[in-house]
Every structure is written in structure tokens, then in C-alpha cells.
Amino acid sequence: MTDSWATFGADLHLEPVGQGLRSGLMEALREAVRTGRLAPGTRLPSSRALAADLGVARNTVADAYAELVAEGWLTARQGSGTRVAQRSAPRRTDPAAAPARPVRSGAGYDLKPGTPDLSGFPRTAWLRAARKALTAAPDEVFGYGDPQGRVELRTVLAEYLARARGVYADPERIVICAGFAHGLALLGRVLRRRRVREVAVESYGLDLHTDLLTDAGLRIPCLPLDERGSRTGDLAALRGAGAVLLTPAHQFPTVPLHPDRRAAAVDWARSTGGLILEDDYDGEFRYDRQPVGALQGLDPERVVHLGTASKSLAPGLRLGWMVLPRHLVGEVMAAKGMADRVSGSPDQLTLAEFIASGAYDRHVRSMRLRYRRRRDQLVAALADRAPGIEVSGIAAGLHAVLELPAGAERSVIQAAAFQGLALEGLSRYRHPDAPATRDALVIGYGSPSESAWAGALDALCRVLP
Questions:
Q1: CA angle (130 as vertex; 127, 134 as ends), nearest 5
Q2: What number of H helices and E strands is found in the chain?
Q3: Rounded CA gap, 410 and 228, in Å?
Q4: How far apart are CA 26 and CA 16, in angstroms?
Q5: Which 3 state secondary structure label does DSSP give 221?
Q6: Is there a contact between 422 and 112 (Cβ–Cβ < 8 Å)?
């Protein structure tokens, strides 16, 4: 039913049907006010007159008016009838003032590092583990739980880390956290309370991690980097450093730490009483080399081992862990506090079952093969279509470093953006005090789905010099 309200001096059409008479009328009136067909201050017909025009009961119109008055669309005063309420006009954006956006052609692809292939998450196996874990779980699992983490997960992790990463661990040394960043933030608080002034970091790394340390009130001098990794022998010259953050298994985003440098870092920690914060980044994804054991195994009382399921499974799980020196457990728990329970107990039990059943090992092996295949395809494509590009950092992990001609990094990233391809340059990860010695791209080959990988690789080759 469509009716015209001639009493307004304009041809105003309402279509108050399709969702019930009253609700349909209300929506028609809202739309008329919203679009400006009913200007602020316009007097509406009486409920009796509108009911007669629409052929509905007067109560239907009266109830609709009353609700719209309550919502602020209309006003009603005795003697002046029902009118459209005065409303602030929405701000109009001048199209000419809007910032220009680059024209993107084709589908969008993302080759930024740091994310695994989320399409590879083992949904069926995870659901099976969750069902088994929750079926056997005691009722107290659904309470607030232990801030240190479920003992079931800590027990399974202690066995797994000892077997797979060479970590010296027992459940009482482990604290469950919501990923690496959460663990690092807790350690930053502990170090500041210990009156540590500086935490040395590597020349390249994530600014999120250094920001967490500076937010804790710590200075972050950087260690020089060469072909054997961070020059840990220079730690002795940093008189104010009470700790160092290292990624020894696969220094992000370049090379693993040479055995001599690993030993030098541990010697420094022993001689000064300092701490090594070990980010076990990419420790499980290796291709052309023997496994590199965790640094923590060299001195469990001087190294904090931090791990996470973010790369091996998915960052959305928010599950990570710290294996701590015994003397740090109490201080970390004090920093964590009773209110800081960010990883749910059911998810912790699911991960414990997932690891204990062998599903975690099977998943890692499967993804290792997938990532190795992608890495090989990346190297082959570059050799064929961009033979002048040198590739490094490919023995492990989920990313590769592509060397570029001097001064080309920014222009390549801009050209990629116009092709709908998201890239990041090496400069994005450089410490402010580190010298800018090279132009390069850091290509994450883990994040595209299987269906998007070929297109992303083709787009990358098109923009390389």
C-alpha cells in the first residue's frame, strides 16, 4: 500500500507495509526524516487523519508516533501537534577534499612477514582435542584458574620443549601468557623493578617489542649485526645493560646466531648477572639445516625462553609461554597479578591435549612441508623472472630477505601498493641507531592462503627491478 500525504503541500509517499503495520509505519517515517523528505519542524497529520489516509487503526498510528517521540525522531506538544524533531545535520564530506587513494588493480595480496597461513589451521584436529579435553575437564576449569597457567599444559610443554627444542624445563618454571608480546611486557616490568636501566636489542626487529621495553622505562641500545648474527661480544661495552633480547634460532629478519656468538652471550650473562630473553622465533620451521637448539639449554638460570603458538598454529589463540629461571618465577607472577588471566583455561587444556596426542607434531611437519614448497617456488620464480635479486634468510622461518639496488626499497614498495600488493622493507625493522647499510624487502611467504599464493608471487615478480 502506497499513500500520498497531500496535507504537507508536497507529494510525500510512505510504504508502511512488509514488516507489520506499526513497525512498517515507524520505519517509513524514520526513513522520511533521515533522507530529508520530512524537514525538521514539519507538522505531521493527526493520528486520526493519518489512520484514515492509510486505512489502519488509529491506535496503530498513535503507538508509532509515541515510539518515535521516545526515540527522538519526533516531538509532541499539546496544542502544536506532532512535529519532526530538530536534528543536527550530518557533516558532508567534500569529495574534492578527500585524500586521493592509489588505484589498485587486480586482487589484493599480502606478503608482509609475521603471519602464518591461517587457512592451514587444523580445525578438525583442534576440535577433536577440544572435545576430548573438555569432556574430561573438572568443573573448576571454568573458574578463574591459576594465573601461572593450567598444570596440564605446563606439564606437556615441559616434555615437548625438552624433546623438540632442547629446553631444560619443568612445570614449575613455566608461566603461560597470551603470546610473546605479553610475556615480554611482564619481563619489562620485572626488570624495571630490579632497577635494570637498559635492555640491549638486535639491530633489526619488531618495533612492537622495543616499544614494550621502552614503555616499561627501559633504554634499548642496539647490538651491531654482521653475517654471523648479532655481535654479542659487544655486550661487555654496554655498561648499563642488565639484559639482552635475542632471536638466536632465526634472527629476525636475517640470520641465525653463530655458535660463538651464542656462547659469548651466555658468558656475558654469567659474568655480569644479566639475563638473556630468548625469542624462539621460527624455531620449529627449518628446511636446509640441522635443528638449532634453544639457547636456554646452555644456562637455564640465566636465559628466559619465550615461545608461542602464534606462528605454529595461529596468533588468534593468544597462547604463549615463558620458561623462567627459578629465581624469576615469583617476580613474574607478582607482575602478572591475580587479575591478569588472559589465556582461557579451556583453550589451555585443548592445546595440552593437542600436543599430548601428537597432533601438534603432525601439524608442524605438515606446515613445514607447505612452507618449504612455497620458499622453493619463491626462489625459483626469482631466479627465472628477477635473476639479479639475491635472496637470503631462507634456511628457516616464514620469510625471506630480497636484496635491492641502493635506493630502490621505497619505490618498489610504492609500485607494489599500486598493484594491490602489500610489502614491507628491511628499513621497517631497523633500530633507530643502526646504520642504514642496505635496501631490501622482507617477504613473508606464510600468510597468503594456498589459493592466493600463485597470484601473490606473480605480483611480486612484476614490481621487482
A1: 145
A2: 13, 19
A3: 27
A4: 8
A5: coil
A6: yes
How far is 238 from 270, CA to CA, in rounded Å? 15
Average of per-residue pLDDT across 401-405: 94
- CA 138 – CA 161 distance, rounded (Å): 26
- The arithmetic mean of pLDDT across residues 427-436, rounded, is 90
Which residue matches cell numbers 605480483?
Answer: 459
39: cell is 524537514
Q: What would the grid cell of residue 351 be?
A: 592445546
- How far apart are alpha carbons 223 and 164 in whole angstroms? 29
Q: Sorting pLDDT into bands at 50, 70 and 90, what band is 370?
A: very high
Backbone angles phi, psi at 238, to 5 degrees: -90, 85
Secondary element (H or E) of residue 230:
strand 229-230
Distance CA 141, CA 447 (A): 33
Distance of CA 8 to the CA centre of its chain: 55
Asked, as a colleague might, if the bond just before 171 is cis with ω within 30 of 0, I would say no
Distances (CA, A) of 274 to 233, 239, 266, 334, 409: 14, 11, 9, 20, 37
C-alpha cell, 212:
614494550
Widest CA span in the chain: 94
pTM, two decimals, is 0.75
Residue written as cell 615480554? 184
State the pLDDT confidence band at 425, using cuts at 50, 70 and 90: very high
CB under 8 Å, gap of 24 or more: what pairs does 130-133 form? 130/346, 130/350, 130/353, 132/353, 132/357, 133/346, 133/349, 133/350, 133/352, 133/353
Residue 311's φ and ψ, nearest 5 degrees, are -90, -40
What is the Cα 251 distance to its own chain's centre?
A: 20
Q: How far apart are CA 196 and CA 366, in angstroms?
A: 42
The H or E element spanning position 324 is none
How far apart (Å, rounded) are the C-alpha atoms in residues 79 and 43?
12
pLDDT digits (tens, 9 = 90+) for 231-285: 999 999 998 899 999 988 766 666 778 889 999 999 999 999 999 999 987 667 8
